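thought: user wants a sequence for this fold. calling inverse folding tool.
action: design(structure=
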C-alpha cells in the first residue's frame, strides 16, 4: 500500500502554522508541476501520433507508469450506443507472463460493458472490489484476474461524457486525493485523444463504406454491359455469379434456374408450391479460387419438392431467405446436398423473379456465421434484377427494350438517392460553418464584455497611484473599481448559471409558494429604482390565494430580470402592468404571468434573437451584459415553462406596448392535487 503523508498535529501554535504554510504551498506547487508536465506529455503524444488505438495505448502506458498501477484502461463511450465502445489497455510487464495474461489484455472489453464504469459522473474509487461485488457487473469470481482496487475518472468533451480512464491495482489500495486530482487534471487531454480516435474510426468506416459502394456501382455497370453483350446464356450466368460472390467476399456462390413442369402454374393459388426442376447453372468457390465450368458440375439437378429452403421462397411470397447460422436454427428442414449446409452454415437465397414468376435463385454462402447487411441485400437484389432481365432477354427478344428501360429507371433512382445524400452532406457542412461563426461571435462578445470593465478598473488603479490625489477623487475611483468588479462578477455568475442550465445538470427543486404574496414582495423590492424613472407598477392578482409549485430561486430571478428589463427600456413616467391569472383547460393547469410596459417597439427581426446571449436590440445603448433575457429563457425552460414576447404599436405614437408572457405549470404531474379550489 502507498504510504500516505502524515497529517499535521491537531493543535498548532502560531509558529507551527507559519512553518506549515510554505510546506503546503510547496506541495501544491509540486502537484501543479506534475499535472502540467503529464498534460504536456499527453499533448505531445496526441500531436505526434496518428489517431489510432496505438496512440491510446501509448497514453495508457504513460499513465500506468506515472501512477504506478498494474493496469490502465482507456475506454471510449458513445451517447447513441452507451453499451458499445472501443477500449485499449496497458498492463505492467510483471503480469504479462502470468497464466492469465490473455485475460488481462482483453479485460478492457469486460470493463466497457460495465454501467458502473460508463456512467460515473465523478471519480469512482474502489479500494477493495470484494466489498462491492454485488453492485458491479463483473466480480473477482467471474474474472480470473485479481482486480482489487479501481480508480475511474470520466472524460468530457462538449459537455458530454466521451470516455473513462480506469486505473487498476491487483491489491487492495486506498487512493488519495492527490492521485484523484492529478488524474482529473489530465482528463481533458485524454478526452481529446479519445475523440480524435473515435473521429478517425468514423472516417475510416465511411471510407470503407464509400469504397464498397464504389465497387458495387462498378459491379452493376459491368453486369449492365454484360447483359447487353452477345455472350451465351450459360457463360453469362457463370460470370455473373463469380463477380457477385467476389464483390461480396463470400466463400461460395451458386446460380440455380427453375424449369416448371406444372401446366397450371400461372393459375395456381398464391403460396402454393409448384412442380419444378432446379438445375445448377453456375458455381464459384473461394477455397478453390477457380470457376467450375465442367458439365458434370453444372448439370446437378433436384426437384423443388426435395428442398424446403427453396420452397420457402414461394410460401413467403418471394422474399429472400437469409440464415446467419444454420446451426442456430430450430427448424428441422430438408435441404438438398448441393447446398452443403454443414460446411456453409451462413446462407442467403435470393429469388430471380420476373413478372411474379420465380426463374431461379442466387445463393451466397459463408463458412462462418455472417450477419447479412441491408446494403448487401440491396446489391444482390439489383444483381438478381439484372440477371432476370438477361434471362428473359435470352428467351424472348420482344421484351428487351422494356427491360432495359426498367433497369435504366432503377439506376436513375439510385443516382437521385446519391444526389440527395450529397445535398444532405452539403447542408451538414453549411451548418458546421454557421456553428463556427456563432462560436466566433460568442468569443468576440464575451471578450468585449470582459475587456471594458477591466480597462476601467486598470485606469482607476493608475489614477489612484497618482501623487497628491484628493480624497474625493480617491473615493470616486474606488467606487468605479467596485462597480466594474461587480459587473465582472455578475457576468461570470450569469455565464456559469447559463452553462449549468444548458447542460441540464440538475432537476428543479420544487416548493409550493403563495403566488400573490411572492409577486408583491418582488415588486416591493424594485419600487425604488422604478420610481426614480417615474415608473409605477399596477398589480392585477387573483382575489383568492393562488398556489404555485416552483423553484423559488429560479422564479424570483425570472421576475427580477423581467422587472429590471422593464426599468431599463420603459418610457419615463409610464405605468407597468403585472398580471397573474389561473387557467385550466382540459388536463392543463397553468399559471399565466404577464408583464407589460410602454417603450420603443421590438421588430420581428429583433424578437427572433432577443432571448439569445449577448444579443440586444438595434440602437439600444442601455448598459448591460446582454445575458438577462437569455438567462430568463433558460430558467423558464428549467421550470418546464414557456415565455413569449409581443410588441403592439400604440396608435398615433412612436411607442409600443411590449408584453412578456410567462406560462408555468401550477403543479407537477407527481404532486398535482385531485381537485382544485
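)
observation: tool returned 677 residues.
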Amino acid at each position: 500500500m502507498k504510504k500516505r503523508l502524515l497529517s499535521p498535529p491537531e493543535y498548532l501554535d502560531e509558529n507551527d502554522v507559519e512553518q506549515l504554510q510554505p510546506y503546503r504551498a510547496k506541495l501544491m506547487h509540486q502537484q501543479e508541476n506534475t499535472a502540467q508536465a503529464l498534460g504536456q506529455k499527453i499533448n505531445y503524444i496526441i500531436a505526434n501520433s496518428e489517431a489510432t488505438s496505438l496512440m491510446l495505448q501509448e497514453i495508457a502506458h504513460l499513465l500506468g507508469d506515472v501512477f504506478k498501477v498494474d493496469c490502465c484502461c482507456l475506454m471510449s463511450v458513445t451517447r447513441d450506443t452507451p453499451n458499445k465502445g472501443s477500449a485499449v489497455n496497458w498492463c505492467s510487464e510483471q503480469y504479462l507472463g502470468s497464466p492469465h495474461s490473455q485475460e488481462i489484455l482483453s479485460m478492457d472489453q469486460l470493463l466497457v460493458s460495465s454501467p458502473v464504469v460508463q456512467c460515473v459522473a465523478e471519480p469512482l474509487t474502489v479500494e477493495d472490489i470484494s466489498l462491492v461485488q454485488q453492485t458491479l457487473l463483473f466480480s473477482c469470481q467471474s474474472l480470473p484476474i485479481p482486480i482489487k482496487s479501481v480508480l475511474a475518472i470520466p472524460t468530457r468533451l462538449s459537455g458530454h461524457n466521451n470516455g473513462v480512464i480506469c486505473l487498476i491495482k491487483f491489491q487492495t489500495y486506498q487512493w488519495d486525493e492527490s492521485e484523484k486530482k492529478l488524474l482529473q487534471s489530465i482528463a481533458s487531454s485524454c478526452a481529446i485523444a479519445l475523440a480524435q480516435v473515435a473521429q478517425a474510426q468514423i472516417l475510416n468506416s465511411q471510407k470503407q463504406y464509400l469504397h464498397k459502394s464504389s465497387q458495387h456501382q462498378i459491379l452493376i455497370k459491368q453486369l449492365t454491359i454484360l447483359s447487353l453483350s452477345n455472350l451465351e446464356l450459360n457463360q453469362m450466368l457463370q460470370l455473373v455469379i463469380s463477380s457477385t460472390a467476389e464483390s461480396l467476399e463470400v466463400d461460395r456462390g451458386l446460380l440455380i434456374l427453375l424449369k416448371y413442369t406444372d401446366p397450371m402454374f400461372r393459375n395456381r393459388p398464391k403460396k402454393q408450391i409448384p412442380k419444378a426442376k432446379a438445375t445448377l447453372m453456375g458455381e464459384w468457390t473461394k477455397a478453390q479460387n477457380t470457376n467450375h465450368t465442367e458439365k458434370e458440375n453444372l448439370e446437378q439437378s433436384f426437384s423443388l419438392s426435395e428442398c424446403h429452403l427453396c420452397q420457402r421462397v414461394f410460401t413467403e411470397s418471394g422474399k429472400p431467405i437469409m440464415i446467419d447460422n444454420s446451426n442456430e436454427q430450430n427448424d428441422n428442414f430438408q435441404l438438398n446436398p448441393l447446398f452443403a449446409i454443414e460446411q456453409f452454415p451462413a446462407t442467403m437465397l435470393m429469388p430471380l423473379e420476373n413478372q411474379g414468376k420465380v426463374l431461379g435463385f442466387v445463393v451466397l454462402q459463408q463458412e462462418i456465421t455472417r450477419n447479412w447487411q441491408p446494403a448487401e441485400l440491396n446489391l444482390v437484389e439489383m444483381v438478381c434484377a439484372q440477371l432476370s432481365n438477361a434471362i428473359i432477354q435470352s428467351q424472348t427478344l420482344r421484351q428487351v427494350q422494356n427491360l432495359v428501360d426498367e433497369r435504366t429507371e432503377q439506376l436513375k433512382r439510385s443516382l437521385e438517392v446519391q444526389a440527395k445524400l450529397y445535398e444532405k452532406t452539403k447542408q451538414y457542412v453549411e451548418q458546421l460553418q454557421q456553428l463556427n461563426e456563432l462560436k466566433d461571435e460568442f468569443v468576440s462578445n464575451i471578450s468585449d464584455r470582459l475587456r471594458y470593465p477591466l480597462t476601467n478598473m486598470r485606469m482607476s488603479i493608475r489614477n489612484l497611484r497618482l501623487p497628491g490625489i484628493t480624497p474625493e477623487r480617491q473615493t470616486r475611483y474606488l467606487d468605479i473599481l467596485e462597480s466594474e468588479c461587480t459587473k465582472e462578477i455578475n457576468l461570470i455568475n450569469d455565464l456559469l448559471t447559463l452553462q449549468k442550465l444548458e447542460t441540464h445538470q440538475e432537476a428543479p427543486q420544487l416548493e409550493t409558494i403563495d403566488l400573490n404574496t411572492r409577486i408583491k414582495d418582488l415588486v416591493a423590492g424594485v419600487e425604488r429604482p422604478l420610481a426614480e424613472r417615474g415608473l409605477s407598477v399596477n398589480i392585477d392578482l387573483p382575489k383568492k390565494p393562488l398556489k404555485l409549485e416552483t423553484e423559488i430561486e429560479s422564479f424570483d430571478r425570472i421576475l427580477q430580470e423581467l422587472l429590471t428589463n422593464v426599468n431599463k427600456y420603459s418610457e419615463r413616467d409610464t405605468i407597468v402592468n403585472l398580471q397573474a391569472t389561473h387557467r385550466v383547460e382540459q388536463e392543463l393547469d397553468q399559471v399565466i404571468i404577464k408583464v407589460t410596459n410602454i417603450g420603443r417597439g421590438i421588430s420581428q427581426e429583433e424578437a427572433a434573437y432577443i432571448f439569445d446571449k449577448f444579443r440586444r436590440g438595434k440602437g439600444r445603448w442601455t448598459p448591460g451584459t446582454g445575458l438577462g433575457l437569455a438567462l430568463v429563457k433558460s430558467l423558464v425552460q428549467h421550470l418546464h415553462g414557456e415565455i413569449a414576447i409581443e410588441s403592439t404599436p400604440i396608435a398615433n405614437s412612436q411607442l409600443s406596448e411590449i408584453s412578456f408572457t410567462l406560462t408555468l405549470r401550477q403543479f407537477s404531474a407527481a404532486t398535482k392535487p385531485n381537485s382544485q379550489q
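thought: summarizing for user.
answer: Here is the designed sequence. The first strand starts at residue 71 and ends at 76.
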